[in-house]
């Protein structure tokens, strides 16, 4: 017989119990929401949603600030390097004011928000952040992120993303260090970039 799921408001006792269960059934930053829900008379999705609300309410007041473009890029960079290890990621100074849950929610929002992702990529290309003098590891990591999210999942890069990679190659092909960084990306990309890789190796 299927368990009846409660639909009314959460009580303080339920929220406290929920937090205890989440601690018990979370390993390697992954929570077994199905197991948690068995003790709550709530669905896994209800538990997950309510826990996010609880975490948000308990967050320090100074965390309720707007994200800067640097913070967003830093978040993307760190996820590309470390994976979704939020406690590790928040040790970076620029992200230390956020809780692990806030980082997770922001990254999830970024993944699901195509418009926001496009605006961030446009910001890079319109502010000349790809100028050789300003090119840094953060941009390299963003390109790596783009590869991992779109190429590794067999989803074609969007025109704007193609444009950014093309511009990065053109602006920095004379800088040996940057060329090496870009090569690590281009050699993994689809046939669209094979000729660029040949040209890169010929230098």
TrEMBL record:
Keywords: DNA-binding. Gene3D superfamilies: Homeodomain-like. The keyword DNA-binding applies. Signal peptide: none annotated. Residues 1-59 form the HTH myb-type domain. GO terms for molecular function: DNA binding. Residues 2-55 form the Myb-like domain. It comes from the Eukaryota. The keyword Methyltransferase does not apply. This is Myb-like DNA-binding domain-containing protein. The lineage of its organism: Eukaryota, Metamonada, Diplomonadida, Hexamitidae, Hexamitinae.
